[in-house]
Amino acid sequence: MWLTQLLERNRQCFPERTALVDEERSVTWAEFHDRTAELARGLAESGIEHGDRVAVLSKDRIEVLESYFALARLGALFVPLNHSLTVPEVAGIVERVGAVAVIGESELLDRHTTLPASVRIRLALDKPGFEALGTVAAERELPAVADTDPIAVLHTSATTGQAKGVTVDSGSFRAIALGWLVMARPTDDIVMVNCCPLYHGSMVVSLTYLAAGATVVLTPGFTPQRALAAVEEHSATHMWLVPQMLRFMLQAKSSHRTDLSSLREILYGAAPMPLDVYAEAVERLGCGFRQVYGMTEVGGPFVTLGPDEHPLPGDVTARIPCGRVVPGMSARAVDGAGRELPRGEIGEMVVRGPGLMQGYWNDPAATEEIRLDGWVRTGDLGFMDEEGRIHLVDRSKDLIIRAGQNVYPSEIERALMAHPAVRDAAVVGMPDADYGEVPLAYVVLESGTEAGAPELLRHTSTLLAPYKRPRRIEFIEQVPRNPAGKIIKKLLRA
Fold first, then answer.
1. What tens digit of pLDDT does each residue of 157-171 get?
2. Which range of residues forms the domain containing residue 205?
3. The domain that contains 415 carries what CATH number?
4. Which of 21, 255, 430, 482 sits at a 20 to 30 Å CA gap from 60?
5. From CA 111, how far away is CA 127, in angstroms rounded?
6. InterPro entries attached here (predicted)?
7. In a domain, 85, yes or no
8. Which of 188, 186, 143, 151 is nearest to 167 (CA)?
9. What 3-state DSSP class applies to 368?
10. Cα–Cα separations (whole angstroms), residue 286 to 39, 156, 260, 305, 379
11. Are residues 407 and 270 in the same domain?
């Protein structure tokens, strides 16, 4: 079983090397391995069995990954929960997956006093009782776990509707990790600061670098100051973040006095990299950049563009390509009938390979809807260039059809953000009696700047064809984004 094999291999190869670090402590690979086995036995003794679902409600910390690995060793499914969800939202997920236990930080557990009847075990991972689980069943035999046994239910970002539970097995984690590491060619001295939460598919990036023996530094939540301090304190070589996080780090006053010279590579994903952020980061940080394109339903990160392939900031005219698929995975652009399109033509990207999910938890209809003759629909519109690189254009659900013409919101957003007064922008379609649908833009201005709608409309007229220009511009204080940096357009449409 992949996660168990990962621990066994790294304990054998470098037992005294640091595996995990958080703000409270660090553990070596030998300690991580032994603690996971002990915790698996303790959880089994507490009544958790092979096939049970266990929700994990916590900010990022070492105990979260210890719990994931221990539950996987037991053959129970870990179900990471977004700790910012409301009480009804958490209860809804717990009920849908039929979780028998909830493991979490005591502060968060105290907010969720009423949970569905299926929950019979509550464990606070920051209390002595959780640590003591490692001593209660030293001789207990653990069940055999096959690579095809499901070991996790990871929930989607839910930018367009209710989050779906993605069921994955060890084979998925292994396929993505091995394919990714072939492309990334990691060295054995990587120290990676993980700025992304461990409760959705982005955690697969951390698992992948752990498989290579890297040290992963966890923080309980992103702030620019915390991320910068972690890089300096641990001489980090890599960071994993979303572009908005990088923007905030560059804007932080402390960035100018923080030693970031150890950085060799910044991994970014979940949203397009703004070109102004990229240009400033290249100039100030002097490190390489690696784009990560992934999807929970296909196992996580399955496409990458490495540092050697990133264009110079001045050579980027629209958007940096996502990159090429990792070995073992395949992708192509298809038309509405599912036919593969020629290079350069825009269609929906579909993916297949051993990283694919088993399906959505208890939702065969949704599972069938996302599948296409053995492929999985990504919902992303894009094309493949002559070099085999994937270029994304927009989300298919966000496409605006104005009088029969396709309008891509991301293109309008880039045009708006090219104006020096615009800090952020989001575009959605709004009904129109004459054209069916037209673009509506929401804009956040830079602090201390002034720009009215007429000025921004004139600006877009120099960059966009008439049918692409926003019909109306609304000014807001903040574009709603989820923790992965993706725009929550359902809130704007509402």
1. 654 456 789 999 999
2. 2-292
3. 3.30.300.30
4. 255
5. 16
6. AMP-bd_C (IPR025110), AMP-bd_C_sf (IPR045851), AMP-dep_synth/lig_dom (IPR000873), ANL_N_sf (IPR042099), ATP-dep_AMP-bd_enzyme (IPR050237)
7. yes
8. 151
9. helix
10. 42, 34, 10, 17, 34
11. no
